[in-house]
Write a structure and sequence with these properties.
two-stranded antiparallel ribbon; mainly alpha; Arc Repressor Mutant, subunit A; 218 residues; binds iron/sulfur cluster; single chain
C-alpha cells in the first residue's frame, strides 16, 4: 500500500521513550536529556505559534494565511499544490486560506506561462506590502539569538540543520531548497562544496532555503 501523503503520524510505539513513555511527561524529562530537548523545542514551537497568531491578529489574517503570505513573498511563483506540500497540509485546507486572501485583494491567480493547466499565485501590490509585515512574524527570535555567542549560534545552526535533514530523510517534513538535496552540492578535498557558487560550505553556511537550489537529479 502506498504511504499516506499528508499528514505523517509517528506511531506511539516509535515516538515514546522506551523506558518512561511520552517525552513531554515530567518523569521522562527528569530522567532523560532527549526528553528535555523535545520539551524545550515544544516550548519554542509554542512561542513561534504565538508570534504567528499575534501577527495574524494585527493584519486581519489567520495564522495559516500569515505563513502562506510570508512564503509567497520572496519565492518564485507558487501553486496551491506546492504550498500544500511545503506546509504539509491538504490542498483543500490551503485552497480555503488562499480564497480568503484573494477576497482581501492580497493575491491573484494567473495562468502559468510555462504550463497552461497550472494557476500561479501572485501577491498583488497590497499583498506585497502585507507580506513584508507577515514575513517578519518570527523576527522577535533574532534578539534572543543575539544573547548567544557567535560560535554558539554557529553550532546551533549546524545542529538544527542536521535535525531538519534527519526529519526530511524520514519523510516527516518537506525542505525543498536545502543543500542536502541540491544538484550543486558536492565535496572537494573531503569538504562540502557548492559547485554553482564556487564556495566551500562550512557547517554554518549550509542553506535551508536557497534560491539557487536545483533538485538533485537521480
Ligand atoms: S546552490 Fe544553494 S542549495 Fe545548492 S549547494 Fe549551493 S548553496 Fe547549497
Amino acid at each position: 500500500m502506498p504511504a499516506p501523503e499528508f499528514p505523517v503520524f509517528i506511531p506511539f510505539a516509535i515516538s515514546q521513550h522506551p523506558a518512561t513513555g511520552p517525552a513531554l511527561h515530567p518523569a521522562s524529562q527528569a530522567a532523560h536529556r532527549d526528553a528535555r530537548i523535545v520539551s524545550a523545542l515544544e516550548r519554542l514551537g509554542e512561542l513561534m505559534r504565538n508570534l504567528t497568531w499575534d501577527t495574524g491578529a494585527a493584519l486581519g489574517l489567520s495564522p495559516l494565511q500569515v505563513q502562506l503570505l510570508s512564503y509567497l513573498h520572496g519565492h518564485p511563483p507558487l501553486t496551491a499544490a506546492s504550498l500544500a506540500r511545503h506546509f504539509h497540509l491538504t490542498k483543500p485546507t490551503v485552497s480555503v486560506a488562499l480564497r480568503g486572501m484573494e477576497q482581501k485583494g492580497l493575491i491573484k491567480q494567473t495562468t502559468s506561462p510555462v504550463d497552461g493547466r497550472v494557476r500561479d499565485l501572485i501577491p498583488t501590490a497590497a499583498g506585497r506590502k502585507t507580506a513584508l509585515k507577515a514575513a517578519s512574524h518570527l523576527d522577535a527570535l533574532l534578539p534572543l539569538l543575539a544573547t548567544l555567542e557567535s560560535r554558539e549560534r554557529d553550532s546551533l545552526f549546524n545542529l538544527l540543520y542536521q535535525l531538519l535533514d534527519a526529519a526530511r530523510r524520514q519523510g516527516l517534513i518537506q525542505v525543498e531548497r536545502m543543500c542536502a538535496t541540491c544538484q550543486h552540492y558536492t565535496t572537494r578535498k573531503d569538504q562540502p562544496y557548492c559547485d554553482l557558487l564556487h564556495t566551500r560550505l562550512t557547517p554554518e553556511t549550509h542553506r535551508v532555503d536557497c534560491p539557487e537550489h536545483e533538485e538533485r537529479r537521480a
